[in-house]
Amino acid sequence: MTEGERYLLDNQQPEAGERFGSLSVLFDPSTFRHIGDLGIGAGWRCWEVGAGGPSVPSWLAGRVGPAGRVLATDIDISWTREATNAVVEVRRHDIGAEDPPAEVFDLVHARLVLVHVCDRDNALRSMIRVLRPGGWLFIEDADPALQPLLCPDEHGPAQRLANKLRAGFRKLLAQRGADLSYGRKLPRLLRDAGLSDVAADAFFPLTSPACSDLEAATVRQIRAGLIAQGYATADEIDQHLANIATGQLDLATAPMISAWGRRPPGGP
Asked: Which helix (H) or strand (E) holds 166?
């Protein structure tokens, strides 16, 4: 079974584009701020791993300019290919199973990727292997186990139903090999891999229209799995989607842990 077949949120499904749009609204500002703080500039060579949509590679291209390079890879490039231009190369690549590109980078970034990759340790080593000395690895991943609720303020039946479906979603992810507590491990993993200047923070969106849009698209995408595994009925899913549409639910995402470290001269 390939990573694509294991991945619950398949890029081939029509809801994938809606999810990428919502994720961009929610997380791009934080991602871009962090990368800017790492010092990205003209001429940098960047590898965007598991790019998904076009927003991050396109932003990177604007920062590195015509003298730079952005390689954007994913197991399915259906939504990424529109970022292709003179600076951005889009390439199909499975970070969990294939060797890394035969080049070196100033920045390697992955967002919401490793949590889903079964051989995530090997994937992390692959990304570090292609960093130039002094280059930055920047990994962002969710930690659903750190805050498991869709509605942290569970004060009524609509909120309880939302949290029931979120629990089902987490179980589906775990069945596909996702590590639901991966985000919190990132600082330790980067240090253990020999990176220096390791630091991290967390971002936790709550009560945003994009949270509602993301949840509706996700539930539609995993609807069949929720019903097949007995985690929700069709009527419960329809009711949850109707509750979202009212705009009265305070929906949250799992905390996003952002961690970064630098490859020291001569190692790791």
From this structure: helix 157-175
- The model's pLDDT over 179-199, given as tens digits with 9 standing for 90+, comes to 999 999 999 999 999 999 999
CA distance 1 to 96: 12
Partners of 45 in beta bridges: 69
User: Which token pair is 28?
Assistant: 């791009």
Q: Is 203 left (phi over 0), alpha (psi -120 to 50) or beta?
A: beta
In a 10 Å sphere around its CB, with 0-12 CB exposed, 13-18 middle and 19+ buried, how is residue 231 labelled?
buried
Q: pLDDT tens, 20-37?
A: 899 999 999 999 999 999
The two tokens of residue 177 are: 């090999």
Query: Euclidean distance between the first and final Cα of the chain, in Å?
Result: 32
Q: What is the pLDDT of residue 26?
A: 96
